[in-house]
Amino acid sequence: MPPFPRTSLIKKISASKITLLLIVSNIAVYLAAGFLDTRAFESLSHDSFLIDWGGNVPALTLSGEYWRLFTSMFLHVGFLHLAVNMLALWSLGMILEARMRPLVFLGVYMLAGLCGSLVTALWHRDELFLSCGASGAILGIFGAAILYGLHDRREGRPHIPPANLLFSLVLTFGAGFALDIDNAAHLGGLLAGALLAGIALWTERMRPMAAVAVLICTALIVGAALAGVTFHYHDRSMQEQIAAARFERTLASMGLLQPARALSGALSLDECAARALSEAAQSARAIPDLRRCAKLDNGYQRLLAEFMPQRYQRCLVQTAQLQQLYPDAATRKALAGIEQYCDMQTRIYAAIFQDQAVGLNVEKAQHARLLTRFLVDGGKNFRTDSAPLQAQAHALQALLRRPGELAFEIVRRSGCPYWSCAR
Fold first, then answer.
1. What is the rounded distance in angstroms from the CA atom of residue 23 to the CA atom of residue 130?
2. What residues are paired with 131 via a beta bridge?
3. 260-284 pLDDT per residue, tens
4. Contact present, 250 and 416 (Cβ < 8 Å)
5. Could you give the CA distance from residue 307 to residue 420 in angstroms, rounded to a whole number?
């Protein structure tokens, strides 16, 4: 068995540029995310951190957030997870990249990682599951290394001993079963890496231009196949449920559902704004005195000034999205009414805290408030003889009941600002 010839460390490093780039990229993402988001180091909110930064949650991935297939490859649960993966990538990449050619090595890594992420999403699509890490891509490199090792041994060339790689694989999958690690990503990456390596070895017999053409076509075909499978399994029902669950959460934080779920201080501030609007309507003033609400003895006002406008902006985005997902007339009309309310609240907060001159029609503002409260009330405390309004209220209630347990749990685990999270 011919050993690999001894080479200096500098030559090894110069021949492993892609490996080093991938290692640096993974470490940079880990450090940057930890610097920008303290939840990276908090055990109680670590899941929400990983979900917000692009972890592969199958229900989210297959309901339209396809970018998670890629971003999850560069996220790691902790330092030990990162260190183990980067050590494996370094030990294999230093040898295999020079043998495969850098761009072929990069292509196998990326495509195998995406395949591993997709297999995970399909395997766990009906459950709450969170996957992240470079291991799917690294197992793709393992698969390629096994194939190259077998080929080079048959040709009498220096090679990586396949038996050593197979033993490492047995340990990897064994640890996966014992520790509940994502073996679906490992298996998907391994098989994809071996298949791509087989094509790469076949092209070594071709002329350079023909080999380049075959490799490019292979990358395009695999990419198209990944996209085709992903779109085929697009879960429209889950997309609707998650969008509705997020909307329900936004309405709750605004104080429009159970008062206990409203952000601290939001209800008293809203009551002050309602009084100012009512007084302006009774005295026929065009501009309500909203600045007085900023003088309330409320220790949460600084936080409300920062975060409540974000809730109302989020409401505007979500109502627009929901109108696309729920196209029936009554639902769209109800969402349009809440959209008007959120737009009005955004202007009210600007008038309270930023002392801005805002175009605010008092009569329309009061109408938007009453309509929204009627819609979210569902007829419990408000009554009307208007059949269209009743239909809108029933449609909105049906939308808010649409999410299942999985959708609500995913949204519950998703991130929120530190000060407002229940801990």
1. 22
2. 56
3. 778 777 888 888 888 888 888 888 7
4. no
5. 9
d(C-alpha 38, C-alpha 45), whole Å: 9
pLDDT of residue 235: 94
User: Do residues 114 and 69 lie in contact, with contact meaning Cβ atoms separated by under 8 Å?
Assistant: yes
Q: 262 to each of 244, 270, 377, how far by Cα in Å?
A: 18, 11, 15
pTM: 0.85
Q: What is the DSSP letter of 134?
A: S
User: For 314-340, what is each residue's pLDDT tens digit?
Assistant: 999 999 999 999 999 999 999 999 999
Q: In whole angstroms, what is the distance from residue 88 CA to residue 100 CA?
A: 17
**Dihedral over Cα of 152, 156, 160, 165: its sign:** positive
- Judged by DSSP in three states, 87 sits in helix
At 171, the amino acid letter reads L
Tell me 259's DSSP state: G
What amino acid occupies position 186? H
Candidates 220, 184, 177, 216; CA nearest to 200 is: 216
Query: Would you give the DSSP letter of residue 389?
Result: H
Strand partners, 56: 131
First to last CA, the chain: 59
* Residue type for position 236: R
Give residue 79's Cα distance to chain centre: 21
